[in-house]
Write a structure and sequence with these properties.
D-ribulose-phosphate 3-epimerase activity, Ribul_P_3_epim-like, binds D-xylitol-5-phosphate, binds zinc ion, eight-stranded parallel sheet, 219 residues, 8 helices, TIM Barrel, 33% helix, alpha/beta
Length: 219
């Protein structure tokens, strides 16, 4: 297993100073920049779109990990590619043709991720395990930062780790929601290698970001 990578979710950043926060978390040790895109339709919250991703892109040299919580997905994929997304992850429930969405993302030269909600079974990724680059396990129901980690997702992470290893493919296993130093330890033990964290990274303000990120990597 590779060393764990930390992807701060800018949903918990200072929205009046997003460019600064992206630069500061990069300097503080972030491995990727996680961007939560919500449409007020697929999830009950509205955040940002490709214009903001494009504006933020020059503020970090790290990969942009774009988590789309929108429906439909396909019409917006080219916009996020153009804006500078490196990984584009989406929820299979967002449309009737998730495999087509994977093909679209891959055809534009970006990494494709499938996101599993807490209520979505691991079987949703099986038909696409030969095509995807990332599996993102939601350990909260998507829509808001600051929610509590849902313990039942640990078994799902362990199952997905076995499926990925059996596939022989280089698929990142990412976990998003309620990640703290304590839950980070649990999900890494279960097989995760990429952690998304909003609250746990941004709490305390810019002077704390480096300490907060280091705490998620564990002792
Ligand atoms: C939830 C988002 C998460 C969220 C994580 O819908 O996908 O990325 O911002 O926030 P915390 O770490 O506060 O649970
Ligand atoms: Zn997310």
């Amino acid at each position: 297993q590779q060393p764990v990578r930390i992807a701060p979710s800018i949903l918990s950043a200072d929205f009046a100073a997003l460019g600064r926060d992206v630069a500061v978390i990069t300097a503080a040790g972030a491995d990727l920049i996680h961007v939560d895109v919500m449409d007020g339709h697929f999830v009950p919250n509205i955040t940002i779109g490709p214009g903001v991703v494009k504006a933020l892109r020059p503020h970090s040299h790290k990969p942009f990990d774009v988590h789309l919580m929108i429906a439909p997905v396909d019409p917006y994929v080219p916009d996020f590619v153009e804006a500078g997304a490196d990984i584009i992850s989406f929820h299979p429930e967002a449309g009737p043709h998730p495999h087509r969405t994977v093909q679209l993302i891959k055809s534009l030269g970006r990494k494709a991720g499938l996101v599993l909600n807490p209520g979505t079974p691991v079987s949703a990724v099986e038909p696409m395990i030969g095509d995807i680059d990332v599996i993102l396990v939601m350990s909260v129901n998507p829509g808001f930062g600051g929610q509590s980690f849902i313990e039942s997702q640990l078994a799902k992470i362990a199952t997905l780790r076995r499926m990925i290893d059996a596939s022989g493919r280089a698929i990142d296993l990412e976990v998003d929601g309620g990640i703290t130093p304590e839950t980070a330890r649990q999900v890494v033990a279960a097989g995760a290698d990429m952690l998304v964290a909003g609250t746990a990274v941004f709490r305390g303000g810019p002077k704390r970001y480096a300490t907060n990120i280091a705490a998620l990597r564990g002792p």
